[in-house]
């Protein structure tokens, strides 16, 4: 009996060990590929408990999640002969667990090696400007290069991204100088465009001011007001020549109004010697518009009238006070007169 119990106990332990080895748990994100005596079973095992034949079945679990695979930085020379260092990242997932388990030994390592080779190939076919500014097209090209062999392995490439492009220091300085020159060119073009637009507007404003001359004065006064608002002690005001011409046209042209001979101021030569008339000077205020003969030189100074006023110089042969008299005679009634030498 003791031997029988021992045999039964051993058989029970064997059954327990076999049952433990024949039951597997498959996670939700996994799929189980079963091999029975090394032969692939067509049906894969889904999530949950998977019961296998003891000592006959072997199960290989395949992860169905999206896997992130960083590609190490690769050195290469672009098509325009620039040495660069580029790294990238690949996102892929398994779509056929049977082919992944049977057709490729280590699909993760295979995807990594293909990604490195494809990245170096993309670097050699592209220019530096494309690597820096047109990465979207390069990402699509790299994704196509990776997807072609990966489809045969049961792997789908979701996305490929170029992360960083490392340039030599000399190339960085050259690019900085190029960017600075481009900025300078743009600034000059913008300044020239602004000058052109300003000149066009100023030309239109000049046409308006030409048709309305008063607008120039108003603009000048507005400028004065703007400058004076800053509380400056000195005001520098430009005075255009056009304004002088406008003022000249606005001034009425014509002879000055005639003044009364008695109210007209004395001339400089009359102020120097009262009562003396220079020889050859016209009688009156100095403007002889009727081409009258000049007065002969005066020998005697004119006498004072009773009222204290000097007699006006008269022409030869004419009385000083406008009345009729004889030469050498005197007026009656207390009025004085002077005689002039007779003509030859």
UniProtKB/TrEMBL annotation:
Higher taxonomy: Bacteria, Bacillati, Actinomycetota, Actinomycetes, Pseudonocardiales
Compositional bias (Basic and acidic residues): 260-274, 292-314, 322-338
Residue ranges constituting the Band domain according to the UniProt record: 21-179
CDD domains (UniProt xref): SPFH_eoslipins_u1
Region (Disordered): 248-344
Superkingdom of source: Bacteria
Protein name (record): Band 7 domain-containing protein
Family: Belongs to the band 7/mec-2 family.
UniProt cross-references to SMART domains, sorted A to Z: PHB
A Pfam family this chain is assigned to: Band_7
